[in-house]
Amino acid sequence: MMMINRQTCGVIIAAAAILSFNPVISGGEDFHFTFPEATIDEIQAAFAENKLTSRQLVEFYITQIENLNPRLKSVLEVNPDARNQADEADLARKRRSRDDQSLRSLGKLHGVPVLLKDTIATKDKLNTTAGSYALVGSVVGRDATVVERLRDAGAVILGKASLTEWYSFRSLGKIPNGWCARGGQAQNPYLPSGDPCGSSSGSAISVAANMVAVSLGSETHGSILCPADHNSVVGFKPTVGLTSRAGVIPVLPIHDTIGPISRTVSDAVYLLDLIVGFDPRDYEATSEAAKFIPVGGYKQFLNRDGLKGKRLGVVRNLFNSRNVSTIIPTFEHHLNTLRKSGATIVDNLEISNVDVISNPSKNGELTAMLAGFKTSVNDYLKDLVSSPVRSLADIIAFNQKNSVLENIKEYGQDTFISSEKTCGFGEKERKAVELMEKLSRDGIEKLMIENKLDAIVTPGTHSISVLGIGGYPGITVPAGYDSNGMPFGLCFGGLKGTEPKLIEVAYAFEQATLVRKQPPLSKSIELTQENLNQSI
């Protein structure tokens, strides 16, 4: 069942008539703006030249959602107030222009639409449900901190993106990636049979299919890096605590982080710059991570020569020839590109205890999650102004009562039930956390220090567990497509606070390769400035 606001979106076009747009605005001989694949810099340049309005941009993305979402199912709701927010952004821009003030002061995200994963709270007409009917109609007390910062910057909150319901945590291993009760099964825009991955699948799919410029996702264990990798977009998982989690439905607070998903590294960095920083509502984590934020922000590290002098480690025992055999030749080609761009490749490295690190049942992660989820989600639910459920026990009961809505018979909720049986963080959970810390110290930290590495590099998603259990940052960049057309990326990971190095490396790699291509959706049309005006 689709939850798009029909009054906002207008008539939903049938899936059989799905179009992929390639519209342009032609505002003169020297100006040409193409909506699909438009970057934030291109959008802001068009704004500055008075050739594009935020309202027109919002209209385009809403039309894209109308046309593509019946097939891709990556958007749960469109914000009924999106057009009004766009009008306000356009008015602010006009006022600045009349006052001869610098439009740059409005910021990179001013007037730019952003989709939010449906776990990020908004105090507006949108729901925040984790993809479940159990939280439909619940009322949050205030915006999540990252949303407050978006609004303060003049960004347009376009709507809520789908996800793997409850971060897949309702029934680990049984809920298909990209599926939730409210939205149904989301689809990879490159390969209908391809895994969209999870849980920030809707955020990644929507960006990949040009249904929005940028989006926000969240990650506990791979939920930004994996869908970005599988849908040929950039996913940036920040150091835990660099971005506030206040107002975001939790999984395991010691590992949860909020990060950008975009089509380019620069767009991800612009969004990251906006949402990082100390937050008293998430005091412990953000106060610790705030020391990593560089003066002047992160955009200064968008350096085309960023690979020069970098030492990149290839940890071969994180992946093997069987699970990456189809992309290994491309990976080896990219390693040569990294070398030619000035990086030193330290190859054939190994992290100790990889089999343990990569298994949540052995590395302590699942033990910590089962207890941490119950405690943290109960706290989140209790803080809601109103809600149909107030505890994990209530959610389980709701699902059992509404099994048809939630497909309980098909996918179950065994992980929820196991979590409900826990009794908080006791000795067993503390030992689980200590094990993850030890595995991280003896693993990636020892490897990087001994080999004087700036980052590690892996094909696909094979560093997710290593980065996840230690709260480390990572960024994945589109790196190619296999013989079936399924995307894959190159993932760069580092130690806490190494975002500047990761940005330099990822941006330089992106600019040297420019691998990403649009999804092969069926038909294209052109919109001119005239018929865009007529649609407003």
TrEMBL record:
Entry-linked Pfam families: Amidase
InterPro entries, per database record: Amidase_dom, AS_sf
Gene3D superfamilies tied to this protein: Amidase signature (AS) domain
Domain Amidase residues, every copy: 57-461
Keywords noted in UniProt: Signal
Position of the signal peptide: 1-27
Domain of life: Eukaryota
PANTHER family given in the database record: AMIDASE (PTHR42678), AMIDASE C869.01 (PTHR42678:SF25)
Transmembrane segments: none
Protein name per its UniProtKB record: Amidase domain-containing protein
Protein's UniProt keywords contain Signal: yes
